[in-house]
Amino acid sequence: MLSFKKALIGILLLVLLYGLSTLFLNKKDTTDTKPNYSMGRVIKGDLQLSVSATGTVKPLTTVQVGSQVSGTLQEVYVDFNSLVKKGEVIAQIEPSLFKAKVAQEKANYNTAVAEKEKAWVSVEESKREFNRAKDLVKSNMITESEVDGARYKYNQALVEHKVKIAAIDLALASLQQAEVNLAHTTIKAPIGGVVLSRDVDIGQTVAASLQAPILFTIAQDLRLMQLETDVDEAFIGMINEGQAVSFTVFAYPNKRFKGKLVQIRLNPRLETDVVLYNSIIHVENNDMSLKPGMTATVTIDIDHRENILKIPNAALRYRPRLPPTEMKELRKSFNIGKNEALIWILSDSGPSPIKVTLGLAADKETEISASDIKEGMEIILLEKRKKVKRQTGIKLF
Questions:
Q1: Residue 354: beta bridge partners?
Q2: Is residue 338 within 8 Å of 373, Cβ to Cβ?
Q3: What pTM was computed for the model?
Q4: pLDDT averaged over 10-residue windows placed end to end, the chain, 397 residues
Q5: CA 365/CA 309 separation, integer angstroms
Q6: CB-based contacts of 128, cutoff 8 Å, min separation 6
Q7: What is the CA radius of gyration of the chain?
Q8: Are 188 and 89 a contacting pair, CB within 8 Å?
Q9: Which of 387, 214, 382 is nearest to 314 (CA)?
Q10: Is the sign of the CA dihedral 317, 319, 323, 328 positive or negative?
């Protein structure tokens, strides 16, 4: 019985020892890592460098038509989308008060003309009196003071005649102003085009006392549109007038429109601490598919290459895990210049560098050239360290 108890205790000790060895001696260490590479390829194809922005489609020429006189609209001859010709009557303000004003100013003008003629009669009469006085004084029939009086009346008549002439000019100016105001009651299209907006109706009173109210907005020709876009100051040095532009609008997501950059305006605009420069793009709209106010996603073409070798930009950012001094010596040994860089391929011994010459750099890809670079070659883009669990304990069973 005693030997049985000793055997049982021995078995329990062995089980306990096994549990302890499993818990502590077989503990796993996670400090070791194994490199895991994300790979890319050298591709042959075209490369496009461009600047992206957003803009608004607008007519090339837009004129807001107003009224220079106040009154009630008697007729409105056009509506939204109406086609008009230059000089065509598009609205009429009730003209009766202005016609009456013209008639009144005509009467004032005629009165001024009559007053001038009457003043000339006085000039001739006073001149005869003055000449007669000069003859009489020679015969001592009148005194010198009477001659002076006749001279004064003559000069006074001449001045009065000049005043009446000036009154005629004043009356004529008033008449012409009244006629101009009457002409302004007829609203005409200043340009030929299409009516974009009509802000008035028949019977509405137009008040032009302080500023000309806007009655219509006319776009000259929608077959030629312009695109206004704001370019960030970081890219303004990359674009120039005359560059080709392409853009899309939400209405036609699968259609790409072509245009030309015609102007970079010098007046800057600050928006959320970013300096922007307004750039004008001209685009043909012969099919009238573009409408004023559309939002456009613009791509300004800066440069392009055809049938060249290119790599993802991530390959140029990759650096193997080497000490800084070793990496510096490596670059020095390859004699890396201004437009040169190292890319890395995966060999049996690990990452191996290749010196390449850089060309056109776009947002996602860069042109490269080197004697030992071929299309389809795999290159390292990214290195990830995968954790590997290493057992450090002692197994008993």
A1: 343
A2: no
A3: 0.66
A4: 58 62 51 75 92 93 92 95 95 96 96 95 92 85 86 93 95 96 95 94 86 88 93 91 94 94 94 92 94 94 91 92 85 87 89 92 91 91 69 48
A5: 10
A6: none
A7: 47
A8: yes
A9: 382
A10: negative
Q: Which of 81, 61, 65, 83 is nearest to 73 (CA)?
A: 65
pLDDT of 289 reads 94
Closest Cα partner for 181 from 99, 103, 107, 104? Answer: 99
- pLDDT, residue 395, reads 47
Which residues fall within 8 angstroms of residue 167, CB to CB, at 6 or more apart?
112, 115, 116
Q: Give me the pLDDT at residue 272, please.
A: 87
Q: DSSP letter string over 246-315?
A: EEEETTEEEEEEEEEEEEEEEEEEEETTEEEEEEEEEEE-TT----TT-EEEEEEEEEEEEEEEEEEHHH
Residue environment code for 220-245, b if the CB has 16+ CB neighbours within 10 A, otherwise e: bebeebbbbbbbeeeebeebeeebeb
Instruction: Determine the pLDDT at residue 106.
Output: 97
Q: What's the rounded Cα separation, in Å, for the pair 229 and 112?
A: 60
Mention every residue, 6+ apart, whose C-beta is less than 8 A from residue 133. Answer: 142, 146, 147, 149, 150, 151
Instruction: Give the whole-angstrom CA distance, residue 88 versus residue 126.
Output: 57
- CB neighbour list of residue 290: distance below 8 Å, 6 or more residues apart: 57, 222, 225, 249, 257, 283
pLDDT at 336: 87
What is the Cβ-side half-sphere exposure of residue 364, based on CA atoms within 13 angstroms? 5
